[in-house]
C-alpha cells in the first residue's frame, strides 16, 4: 500500500470498465466500489511513448517484464520470475497448405511455466498483490489458473487457497498440491468455486483473485497482445482466434492493441478478435448472434475443455465490446470437433495443443466457410496451453479419432 512508486511507474489509475469511476492503484482493490464491474489499469501512455521506443523494448532480455512500463510497478526486489512470456509464434505450414492459407500462425502458450498462458496473469497478479501488501490469496479456477497462481505464490512466499471442480484433470490438482496450495474441490463448476471463494474471502481476509475481479491479471495476459504486435513488426495480423472461458486473454489482447495504438506504435488497425467457445457452453456466441451487448448464463454448461467451462464470464459485457470494437465475431464448436483437432494439430504440425486451443482449428474452418475470414489473411491461433495435463481426457473420450 505504501510501496514507493518506481522510475517506471506510469500507472495512473484503475478505472471502472462500466462507470469510469477511478480508484487509487496504490491500494488493494477488487471490483469497482460504485457499481461492481471490472477495474482496468490506465497508464500515462503519452509519457510511456516518450520514455521508450519499440526497438528498445525488443532489445531487452526475454519475458513479460520487457513491457514493464505498461505493467503495474513491482515491489522492491521485483515479483517472482518463473520465465513467463515470449512464447513461440509458429508458422502452420502444413495446415496452412491444407486450408489454402499462406499466412496462418499459432502462438504456443504451452511453452509457459505451468504449461499455459495463465502464467502471464499469475506473474503480474501475484507481483502486484505482493507489492500492495496482500497476505493471503484465494482463487476459484477451472484448473490452470489455480496451478499458475499456486506456482507464483510459492515463489513469492504467499499462502494461497485454490478452489476447483472435482473433475479438474488430476495432473492440475497434483501441481497445485505440489506448490503447497490449500486445495478445495467442489462438486460443481468454476462458478460454484467462485461463490465459495467470495464468501470465505470476506470472512477470512483472503484476497479474491477471481477472473476480472482483480485488476492486474488482465495486465499480465495483455502481454500476449504486445508480443503479437511486436512479432509482426507492429503491423497487427488481420485476426486472432481465442478460446474464450472468462475472456481475460481476449480482453487483454484488446487492451494491448488499444494502448499501442494510442502510443502511435501500431502500423495498421488492431486485429479482429474472434471468441471461440464450446457448443455446450457458449454464452458469448449466443449473445453475439442475438446482437446483445450482454450475455446470459448458460444452464447445464458442459464441455470436455475445462478452460471453456465457464457458464457466464464475469466480464461478459467487456468481452462483447472487445469483439464489437475490433470488428470480430464469435463461433462455437462441438467437443467432437475440438478433440479431433487435438490429433490433427499434433499430427500435422507437431503441436500438442490443449483441447481449448485445439478448438480454434474447427472454428477457423467454419469462419472460412462463412466468409468471416479469407484465405489470404494473416491469422493467429492462440493456443492457450500444452495438452500433457489432458491426456486422461483424450483416453476417456477416445480423442484419437481424426
Ligand atoms: C483459462 C483457460 C482458457 C480460457 O481463458 P480466459 O482468458 O479465461 O478466457 C483457455 N484455455 C486454457 C488452457 C485455459 O486454462
Ligand atoms: Zn463502476
- How are the strands ordered across the major sheet? 4-5-13-10-11-12
pLDDT under 50 segments (min length 5)? 1-5
Q: Could you estimate the helical fraction of the residues in percent?
A: 25-40%
Shape: globular
| Largest beta-sheet characterization | 6 strands, mixed
Helix-strand pattern: EEEHHEHEHEHEHEHEHEHEHHEHHHEH
Mean pLDDT: 94
Tally of helical runs: 15
Helical/strand content category: alpha/beta
Rg = 20 Å
Subunit arrangement of the protein:
single chain
Bound compounds: pyridoxal-5'-phosphate, zinc ion
Beta-strand residue percentage: 5-15%
Please count the beta strands (DSSP E, at least 2 residues each): 13
Straight-line distance between termini: 53 Å
Would you kindly provide a brief summary of this structure?
With 402 residues, this protein is α/β, with parallel strands linked by helices. The chain is 39% helix and 15% strand.
Description:
Mean pLDDT is 94; it is low at 1-5. The longest helix has 15 residues, at 190-204. The protein is of the alpha/beta class and 402 residues long. The strands form three sheets. A six-stranded mixed β-sheet has the order 4-5-13-10-11-12, with helices on both faces. Helix 5 links the parallel strand 6 (137-140) and strand 7. The protein is globular, with a radius of gyration of 20 Å. Helix 4 runs parallel beside helix 5 (144-156). It is built from 15 helices and 13 strands. The chain has helices at 45-51, 54-59, 93-99, 118-131, 144-156, 170-178, 190-204, 217-231, 248-262, 283-289, 316-326, 335-349, 355-358, 360-370, 391-397; strands at residues 11-16, 22-23, 39-43, 89-91, 104-108, 137-140, 160-165, 182-186, 207-208, 239-243, 272-278, 329-333, 379-383. Zinc ion binds next to loops.
Amino acid at each position: 500500500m505504501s510501496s514507493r512508486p518506481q522510475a517506471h511507474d506510469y500507472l495512473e489509475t484503475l478505472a471502472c470498465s462500466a462507470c469510469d469511476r477511478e480508484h487509487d492503484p496504490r491500494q488493494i482493490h477488487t471490483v469497482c466500489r460504485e457499481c461492481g464491474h471490472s477495474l482496468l489499469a490506465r497508464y500515462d501512455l503519452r509519457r510511456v511513448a516518450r520514455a521508450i521506443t519499440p526497438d528498445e523494448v525488443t532489445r531487452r532480455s526475454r519475458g513479460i517484464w520487457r513491457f514493464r512500463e505498461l505493467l503495474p510497478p513491482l515491489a522492491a526486489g521485483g515479483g517472482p520470475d518463473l520465465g513467463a512470456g515470449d512464447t513461440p509464434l509458429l508458422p502452420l505450414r502444413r495446415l496452412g497448405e491444407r486450408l489454402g492459407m499462406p499466412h496462418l500462425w499459432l502462438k504456443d502458450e504451452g511453452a509457459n511455466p505451468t504449461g499455459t498462458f495463465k502464467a502471464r496473469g499469475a506473474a503480474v497478479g501475484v507481483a502486484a498483490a505482493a507489492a500492495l501488501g496482500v497476505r493471503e490469496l484465494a482463487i476459484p479456477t477451472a484448473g490452470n489458473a489455480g496451478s499458475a497462481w499456486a506456482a507464483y505464490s510459492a515463489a513469492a512466499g504467499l499462502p494461497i487457497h485454490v478452489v476447483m471442480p472435482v473433475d479438474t484433470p488430476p495432473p492440475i490438482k497434483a501441481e497445485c498440491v505440489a506448490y503447497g496450495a490449500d486445495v478445495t474441490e467442489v462438486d460443481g463448476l468454476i462458478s460454484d468455486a467462485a461463490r465459495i471463494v467470495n464468501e470465505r474471502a470476506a470472512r477470512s481476509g483472503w484476497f479474491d483473485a477471481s477472473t476480472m475481479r482483480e485488476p492486474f491479471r488482465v495486465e499480465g495476459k495483455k502481454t500476449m497482445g504486445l508480443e503479437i504486435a511486436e512479432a509482426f513488426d507492429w503491423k497487427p495480423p488481420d485476426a486472432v482466434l481465442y478460446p474464450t472461458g472468462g475472456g481475460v486473454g481476449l480482453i487483454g489482447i484488446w487492451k494491448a492493441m488499444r494502448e499501442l495504438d494510442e502510443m502511435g506504435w501500431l502500423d495498421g488497425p488492431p486485429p479482429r478478435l474472434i471468441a471461440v467457445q464450446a457448443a455446450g457452453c457458449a454464452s458469448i456466441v449466443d449473445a453475439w448472434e442475438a446482437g446483445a451487448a450482454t450475455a446470459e448464463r448458460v444452464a447445464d454448461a458442459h464441455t470436455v475443455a475445462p478452460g471453456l467451462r465457464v457458464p457466464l464470464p464475469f466480464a461478459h459485457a467487456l468481452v462483447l465490446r472487445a469483439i464489437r470494437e475490433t470488428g470480430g465475431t464469435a463461433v462455437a464448436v462441438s467437443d467432437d470437433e475440438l478433440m479431433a483437432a487435438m490429433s490433427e494439430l499434433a499430427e500435422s504440425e507437431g503441436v500438442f495443443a490443449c483441447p481449448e486451443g485445439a478448438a480454434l482449428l474447427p472454428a477457423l474452418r467454419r469462419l472460412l466457410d462463412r466468409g468471416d475470414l479469407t484465405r489470404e489473411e494473416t491469422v493467429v491461433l492462440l493456443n492457450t496451453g500444452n495438452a500433457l495435463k489432458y491426456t486422461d481426457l483424450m483416453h476417456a473420450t477416445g480423442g484419437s479419432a481424426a
